[in-house]
């Protein structure tokens, strides 16, 4: 089981929260009774929901006890629940299901998204964004290292991450249940100090399931090789910094 680190995740909180803020800006609700943050992490996205809907009941849901502990410390007035979003169902009078970078880890997430939208009352909103970065160097290097490195026997069973489909596929999935669907894509160019900073970013998310299978010596060797490859893939710009490209896909569906 992968352990998620709240401290590692929030090293880039501003950059990680930006997609959540931009998603929330497109949610067509003036007020809400109950809002659920699916995969709330350490509460950075939940905090945005509290500010947007101050009179609503705000619930954060996550499968990581460490993330939930950080979220409860950050927002003691909110309710946080440990649960698997793949099996969870919203209570009646839930007006918004909000998710910032979770469903790429949920098996068969198409079926889960359809089920969650169907569970909402008319006018309820499902809003989510997911990383669409499997074609980026950070991910391609990881997969190549897992398949060819001295630790490859530990990855005979591959790390499960759901591929992100084309926007048209999600539109066709959600539209039969929705009064309206809004889908868009953004490719962020995060300005970071160095390839080592990119490594720190990925250690907080996508790299964690891989590192969890390695012993201490293997982890040190993996991180050294990975950083070396990142330095080749992300050369310094004119000021010495690097541009970390990160595509994301956004969806907002209003229940019919």
Write the layout of secondary structure elements.
Elements: H1 6-9, H2 13-24, E1 34-38, H3 44-52, E2 57-62, H4 65-74, E3 79-82, E4 96-100, H5 109-119, E5 125-131, H6 137-148, H7 167-174, E6 178-192, H8 195-203, H9 208-211, H10 216-233, E7 242-255
Parallel strand pairs: 1-2, 1-4, 2-3, 4-5
Antiparallel strand pairs: 5-7, 6-7
Helix pairs in contact: 2-3, 6-10, 8-10
Straight-line distance between termini: 38 Å
CATH-scheme architecture: 3-Layer(aba) Sandwich
CATH superfamily grouping: Vaccinia Virus protein VP39
CATH class: Alpha Beta
**Beta strand %:** 15-25%
Number of strands: 7
Output the strand order for the largest sheet: 3-2-1-4-5-7-6
Shape from CA axes?
Answer: globular
Strand count, sense and barrel status of the largest sheet are: 7 strands, mixed
Q: Could you spell the SSE succession in H and E letters? A: HHEHEHEEHEHHEHHHE
